[in-house]
Amino acid sequence: MIGAASSNTPVSGKGGDLLWHVVPWAIAIAVFFVAGGYLSLGTAALIMILLTLSLDLALGYAGIVTMGHAALFGFGAYAAGLFAIHVTSDPLIGLASATVATALFGLVTGMLILHTHGVTLLMLTLAIASLLAEAANRAHGITGGDDGLQGIRMAPLLGLFRFDLYGKTAYLYALAVLFVWFLVAASVVRSPFGRSLDGIRQNPRRMLAIGTPVWWRLVAVYTLSAAMAGSAGALSAQTTRFVGLNTLGILISGIAVVMLVLGGVRRLYGAFIGAAVYVAVQDYAAKVNPFYWMFFIGGLLMFTVLFLEGGLMELLDRARRGVDRLFARRHRS
After folding, report:
1. How far is CA 48 from the centre of its chain?
2. Residue 275, class by beta-carbon neighbours within 10 Å (0-12 exposed, 13-18 middle, 19+ buried)?
3. 313-316: long-range contacts (C-beta < 8 A, 24 or more apart)?
4. Which residue in 223, 235, 247, 240 sits closest to 143, CA to CA?
């Protein structure tokens, strides 16, 4: 997709491709300066982008049919919250610890369930999420049960930046973590390992026949996806300083799938578009009618599925091609 281009071509080719990569991050930074009192909502959107990105890696690129990403998200949230209460309130150490713990959880559960596929795999991921939610509910002395995990305190980030009520530190913190994970995901997708995942998704038997260790690669990408989802959960716990049972609920998994479909499957920036649009529409629709906001989300999802095969990213692709053609004509003239 990134091809050679003359230095005089302003948009097409390598420079243009880089420009289109810069735009989403420039918008995210601009939001910090113009959002005002909506930074908390923006932080929530960034966290959901990371969760959706982790789901795209497993479901979109590797074809792992799962509805249990809430288990990974919630596991990371509880791990970060408990770490902050009982060990240290340093956010970076807590984030790293929760990420590693969730990756190990994903590794163990992945080795158990990835021998299956299809509906069986889907049911197993749901079962793990349900079991984890019930365990958290029962362990009231540790997790707070249905009252939620409370009493989380966060030290200033890097010892300098306090998590204030305006959400400035939380927003930039979440954006930085998302950026790091995006670079990791992009590197994986474009690597030979990522290309082998695409082959496994399309025809696992053929990949197995040519000597590809299919099961191990699925376990590896599921573990990576779990680490990303755990980081999203940890960010949620650290920025809100609360973890509820809803973080382990099937609704979180369902929302992540909806966001992925809205943005576009197997499109890394689709997670950006899908999650951002979902959060924005939900917030606006809830203000218009707090009882029927799901109607707006459902209508948007139906429109996307029926008319935009590649999700909302397809609209941006059309706009990009139009801009590229415009600049190409001006360059030729």
Report:
1. 5
2. buried
3. 313/263, 313/264, 313/267, 313/269, 313/270, 313/273, 314/264, 316/269, 316/273
4. 247
Is 1.10.3470 the CATH classification of the domain at 13-332?
yes
Phi/psi for 161 (5° steps) reads: -110, 110
Give, for 266, the enclosing helix (H) or strand (E). Answer: none
**Distance of CA 14 to CAs 20, 47, 151, Å?**
10, 30, 50
The number of angstroms, rounded, from the C-alpha of 288 to the middle of its chain's C-alpha atoms is: 27
Question: Which residue from 138, 147, 137, 153 is spatially nearest to 82, judged by alpha carbons?
Answer: 153
Q: Can you spell out the DSSP letters for 184-201?
A: HHHHHHHSHHHHHHHHHH
Task: List all residues 6 or more positions away from 183 whose beta carbon is below 8 Å from its beta carbon.
Answer: none
Question: Rounded to the nearest 5 degrees, what angle is found at the Cα of 73, between the Cα atoms of 79 and 187?
Answer: 105
Contact residues for 146 (Cβ-Cβ < 8 A; gap 6+): 137, 245
Q: Quote the pTM value.
A: 0.90
Residue 157 sits at φ, ψ, to 5 deg, of -65, 125
Please, is 271 exposed, middle or buried when counting C-beta atoms within 10 Å of its C-beta (0-12, 13-18, 19+)?
A: buried
Q: What is the pLDDT along the chain (333 residues), one digit of tens a residue?
A: 333 333 333 333 444 567 778 888 999 999 888 877 788 899 999 999 999 999 999 999 999 999 989 999 999 999 999 999 999 999 999 999 999 999 999 999 999 999 998 899 999 999 999 999 999 999 988 988 888 888 888 898 888 888 887 778 899 999 999 999 999 999 999 999 999 999 999 998 999 999 889 999 999 999 999 999 999 999 999 999 999 999 998 889 999 999 999 998 988 888 889 999 999 888 888 888 777 778 888 888 888 888 887 888 888 877 777 777 777 777 776
